[in-house]
Amino acid sequence: MASNLSPYRLAKARDLFNIFSVFNALSWQFLTGNVVALFALRMGASPTYIGVLSAVLYLAFFFLPLGRALTNRISMVKIFSYAWGGRSLGMIPLLFVPIIFAAGHQDLALLITLLGVAAFHIIRGLGMIANNPVLSHLSKGPDQGSYLTQIQVLQSAVVMFAGFIIAMLLGRDPPLFLYTIIIAVGIITGIISGVIVNKIPEPEAQETGKGKNLIEVIKETMEQPSLRRFIIIVLLVALVSGVSRTFLVVYAREVFDQSDGMVALFAVFGGLGHLMIGLFIKFLVDRVGAKPLFTICVIISLLSMIPVLFFPASQSDNLTTVILFLSFLFFMLSFGWLGSEGIMQTYFMAMVPVEKMTDMGMIYFFSFGIAGVVGSLFGGVFLDVVVAISGSYYTSFRILFLILIIITGITLIPMRKMVSLGALPFISALGVLFSFRELRAISLLERLKKSSNAGEEEAILDALHDTPSKLAIKGLLTRIKSPRLSVRMESIRAIDALKNLNEDAERALMDDIINNPYTSAYRSARALGNHGVFHAVPLLRELVLSNDYMLSGEAMIALAKLKDTGFMSQIESIIKETSNPRLQMAGAEALGIYGVNDSLPVLLDMLRVANPPPYLADEVVLAMAGILGIQHKFYPLLVRFLADETQASTLAQDEAESAYEHAVSVHVNKRSNRNPKLKAFNYQTKSFQSAILEYIKTFSGSKLSRWIREIPDELVNEFVRNVFIETILDEVHFNDLRLQLLIVHWASHELRLWTSKLKAEF
Q1: pLDDT in tens, 731-753
Q2: DSSP character string of 301-333
Q3: Is 669 helix (H, G, I), strand (E, B) or coil?
Q4: Is there a contact between 121 and 372 (Cβ–Cβ < 8 Å)?
Q5: HEC states along 369-414?
Q6: pLDDT per residue over 143-196, tens digit each?
Q7: In whole angstroms, what is the distance from residue 552 CA to residue 730 CA?
Q8: What pTM value is reported for the model?
C-alpha cells in the first residue's frame, strides 16, 4: 500500500514526470498522427484507409481490461513503463516499409504500416490503465487542475517544436526514407520515456474495484446520473474532436493541394493552439473550475468549424488566403478540441474518487475508444462515398463539417446539467474572462502561491486588497494562518475588501477573533461588522468586555454596523466608565453608526472633561454629525478646520452665509408678505446671520437658541432641538470650536431643509 508523498518527494516525482512528458511527447509526435497519415498518403492511401488508420489509434482503449488484469500481478508503474517502451518497439516494422514500397508492393507496405500502428496502440492500451492513477497520484492537492494542465502545456510545447522540425525536414516533396529517420527517432525517444517513467513512485493501491468484471463496472457507472451524462458527453466530444482533427490533413492535401511540408507546418499551428489553450486553462482552472472552461472550449470548437462551410471555392487557388485559412483552422480546432479533451480529463479526475480511478478511468477511455473508432471509420467512408457521388472533396468536407457542427450543438445540451464540482456558473466564468480586475487578481494569486518570503507575500496581499475578487478567498484563507503577523493582517485586510464572504471566510474570521487577541483579532472583528455577519453578534458581545481594548473597540463598532441596538446601552456605559481614549473613540464611532438621538447627551458629556484628547473630540463631533445625518458634508468642513484652527470663525460664517443666500434666492419675492409661512420664514432667514454671528464672535447663544426654537416641528426632532438649545447656553461648551462649528453647520442644514420644504409647497 503506497503512502502519500511528502511535499519534497511529490515535487521530485513531478519533476521526473515532466522529463518523461518531454520524451513521451517527442515520441508521440514522431510516431503518430500527422506523420503516419502523411506517410500513408505519400504511398497513395485513400481517405477510408486514413480513417481506418485513425481508428486503430483508439484500439488502445479496448485493451484496458487486459491492462487492468495485469495490475493483479504487476505494479502500475511497471505496466506503464513496459507498455511505453514496448509500444515503440511495435513501430520497428515501419522502418522497412519504404524498401517494400520501392519494390512495388504498395498494398503490403500499407498493410505493414497499419499493423505496426496497431501494435503500437494495442501495447499502449495495456499501459494506459496506469495513466489516470499515476496522474491522479502526482496531481493531488489544491493545484490539481493547474498541474494537469501544466503537463498538457509542456507536452504541447514539445509537440509544437517537434512539428516544426518535421515540417522543415519534409519540405515540398520528401522521399520516404526521411519518414524512416523520423520514425526511428520516435522509437528511441519512446524507449527512453519508458525507462524514465519506471522511476516514478508507485500510486496508492486501487482496492475498491478489485474483483469486478467489466460489465459490473459499466453497470455501476451507468447507475450514477452524473457519470452517465458525462460519458455521453465524452462520446460526443471525442467523436467530433477525432473526426475534425484527423481529416484536416486530408482536407489540406486534397482540397487545397498542400505539400507534406506545408501540412506539417500547419500542424505546428495546431500545436501552438494546443499550447495556448493549455496556458489559458492552467491560468484559470483552479480559480474558475473545470465545468465552465469545458463549455467554453466546446463553444470555441463549434465556432471554429463554421468557416469550413463558407470558405469560397474560388479562393482555393489563392495561396495567401489558403495559408491563412488553414493556419487558422489548424490552430482553432486544436485550441478548442484539445482544450476540451484536456479539461474533460481534469473534470473527470475531480469527479471520481481516487479509489475508483482505475475502474472508472477504464470506462472513460472506453468511451473515447468507441467514439474514436466510429468517428474515424465513418469520416473516412463518408468522404470516399460523397467524393464518388459528387466528384468533389470540397463538397464532401462541407457536408461532413455540417454534421459535426450539429453534433457539437447537441453536445452543449447535456453539458448544462453537468455537476459543477465547485466551479463558477458559466455566466460568472465569462465575467471573469472579460474582467481585467478578476484576471489581475488571478495573476496575483499565482504569484502569491509561488512567493517565498513574508515581505513578498505582504506586497501581493496589499495588491489583492486593491483588486478585490471572490476568486481570491481560497488563497487568502491560506495566508490567514501564516506564522507572520503582518501577513495575517494583510490577508484579513484583503478579505475585508471583498464584496461578499463565503462560509469558510466567515468561520476563519470568527476563529481569529477567538484565538488571536492582542494581535489580529480586532481586524477580523472589523471585517465581520463590515460584511454584516449577523450570527457573530453573540460572540462580539462577549468580546466587548475583552481586556484587548483594540478588540473591544472594534467589537462595539461591529455591533453597531450589525444594528444590534439592544447592546447600545452597554456601549454607553463603557464610554462613561472607561478612561481609555481608544475605547472611548470606538464607542463614540459606534454610537454615531447607531444614529440614535438619545445618545447625543452621552457624547456631549465626553466633551465636558478638561482637555479631552484632540482626536477623541474629533471622533465625538463626527459621531454627533452621524446621528444628525450630516456627517458626509460636515467631515470635509472639520478637515479644513483642523488644517488651520484659526479659521474656525471664517468657516462658520461661510456656512451661514451660503445657507442664507440659498434661502434668499429661492423665497424672497413679491409673494413673501402674502403668505404667513413665507413671511415667518423670511423673518427667520433675516435673523439667521445675526444669530450665527453673535454665537461665533461672543459665544452668546441667546439669539441662536431663539432661532432654533422657531424651526418648524416637522423639520427637527424635539429632543435634538432641546439638546442643542441647552448646549448653546451651556458655558462649559463655550470654547469648544469643533462643537461650535458643528452647531453652525447643523443650523445651516436646517435652514436649507426649511427652504426646500417651502419650495415644494409653493
Answers
A1: 765 568 888 999 999 999 999 99
A2: HHHHHHHHHH--GGGTT-HHHHHHHHHHHHHHH
A3: coil
A4: no
A5: HHHHHHHHHHHHHHHHHHHHHHCCHHHHHHHHHHHHHHHHHHHHHH
A6: 666 677 678 778 778 877 887 888 787 766 778 888 888 889 989 999 999 899
A7: 33
A8: 0.65
